[in-house]
Amino acid sequence: MKDTFEVLIADRNPHVREFLKRELKAEGYRIRLAENGSEVLKAVYQHETLDLLILDPDLPDAEESRLLKKIQNRIPCLPVVIHTFLSDYTSETFRAAALVEKKGNSVELLKQVVSDILKKRTAENISPLLPEADDAAKRIW
Asked: What phi, psi does 127 have (nearest 5°)?
């Protein structure tokens, strides 16, 4: 079982990034930060230890559907939690991702969702980078 999970937080607002970093670090996660789509892709392509991505789809220099497709092509099993103000976000692109709306004290819900996803993956022994996880992953090895 993995001792520490690595979470990438991608949000255009530096205050939100730092707040989530502080809150999730207190839960024992290692945190990486990204402020735009380019930084997300850089992290995804250069750091193969990512266990989960918290993504605000309203990032500068990123078209949300293309960004998510690139992420999924690189690490097909990487869980993505969409963290956004849009309560009725209906984009087909994000159907498979978890959604936590930014409102009130949503950080508690976000922490619970992150914990639940990572516990489930640990129990099922799923690694986002296992080449045998699916055919798309095999292409990157």
From this structure: -110, 135
1, part of any domain:
no
- Residue 97 sits in a domain of what CATH number? 3.40.50.2300
Residues 96 and 68: beta-carbon distance below 8 Å: no
Tokens found for residue 14: 């530096």
- Provide the number of structural domains found in the chain: 1
- Please name which of 63, 68, 98 lies closest in space to residue 83, comparing C-alpha atoms: 98
pTM of the predicted protein model: 0.82
Instruction: In whole angstroms, give the CA distance from residue 11 to residue 101.
Output: 13
State the residue range of the domain holding 26.
Answer: 6-140
DSSP 57: S
Could you report the per-residue pLDDT of 82-138, keeping only the tens digit for each? Answer: 998 875 555 555 665 788 988 888 999 999 999 999 999 888 876 655 444 344 333
